[in-house]
């Protein structure tokens, strides 16, 4: 006998991005390439930082963790979406749907806090350069990392706790390519108005706190950079621009997706695609193309690999 909270609904139907067969084939090819780019791009950062001792610094330790989160964030729904492009009936089990929502909020919350940790790292590096390695010690880095995952876990658990006792006994069609909480919660067979407010408050509070911390951090950093020498200022702004671009790409879709999550209109699919797929793809591109140290490390590893092949 199935549990009461989903006694009449054992699976959900995903409408996907389009009903056109031609478009679905095009999407299958396109998103397969994009997903491969996400995995390879983030793997490149992981390998580069791991094998180049010059990059064994606090900033790059946080960066490889961001790459890991981005890879998993892109993987919680994208592979299934790609496979579903070839299926006529796109379904997902109740627990599969629940898992997608859990991991989306877990990884999203963790990434928000990790971006805050990266902002703290840049603040210390630019404003207190002589004490950088002392302040950003391995113990502090592990603490920041564990705090990021802990906040993400608490945030996701609190969101999912609201879902456990909801009865799903009627409609089971989700107008998206994955299970998103604002869409799924509307399918419950009870009045969810208060629950909607709690969900909005939970997500909004975390987003607001992280955004304010980032805003304060980068404002202080920019004010400090203005007093640096021309060369130091140029290098600092180059690093900062990459971080600020990533923060903007991450938070902008969140605002549009969750400001009006329970209106009569469905969540904008384009923004959902951007948030879950293109942001994890753009992050490694931004950090490699705009970072001279990473580009130099990649070139060094490639040269070392070519030389080792020639000696064989």
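Sequence proposed for the structure above (312 residues):
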């Amino acid at each position: 006998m199935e549990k009461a909270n989903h006694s009449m609904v054992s699976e959900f139907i995903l409408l996907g991005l389009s009903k056109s067969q031609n478009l679905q084939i095009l999407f299958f090819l396109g998103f397969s390439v994009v997903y491969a780019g996400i995995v390879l791009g983030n793997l490149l950062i992981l390998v580069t930082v791991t094998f180049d001792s010059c990059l064994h610094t606090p900033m790059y330790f946080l960066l490889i963790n961001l790459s890991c989160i981005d890879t998993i964030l892109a993987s919680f729904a994208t592979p299934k979406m790609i496979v579903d492009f070839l299926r006529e009936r796109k379904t997902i089990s109740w627990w599969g749907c629940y898992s997608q929502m859990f991991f989306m909020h877990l990884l999203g919350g963790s990434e928000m806090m990790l971006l805050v940790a990266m902002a703290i790292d840049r603040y210390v590096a630019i404003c207190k350069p002589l004490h950088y390695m002392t302040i950003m010690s391995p113990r502090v880095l592990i603490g920041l990392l564990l705090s990021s995952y802990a906040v993400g876990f608490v945030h996701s658990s609190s969101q999912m706790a609201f879902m456990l006792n909801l009865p799903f006994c009627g409609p089971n069609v989700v107008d998206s390519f994955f299970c998103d909480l604002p869409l799924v919660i509307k399918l419950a067979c009870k009045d969810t108005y208060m629950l909607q407010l709690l969900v909005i408050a939970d997500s909004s509070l975390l987003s607001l706190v992280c955004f304010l911390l980032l805003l304060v951090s980068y404002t202080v950093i920019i004010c400090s950079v203005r007093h640096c020498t021309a060369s130091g200022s140029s290098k600092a702004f180059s690093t900062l621009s990459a971080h600020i671009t990533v923060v903007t790409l991450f938070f902008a879709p969140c605002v549009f997706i969750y400001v009006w999550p329970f209106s009569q209109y469905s969540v904008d699919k384009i923004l959902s695609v951007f948030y879950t797929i293109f942001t994890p793809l753009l992050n490694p591109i931004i950090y490699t193309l705009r970072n001279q140290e990473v580009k130099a490390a990649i070139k060094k590893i490639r040269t070392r690999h070519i030389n080792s092949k020639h000696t064989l």
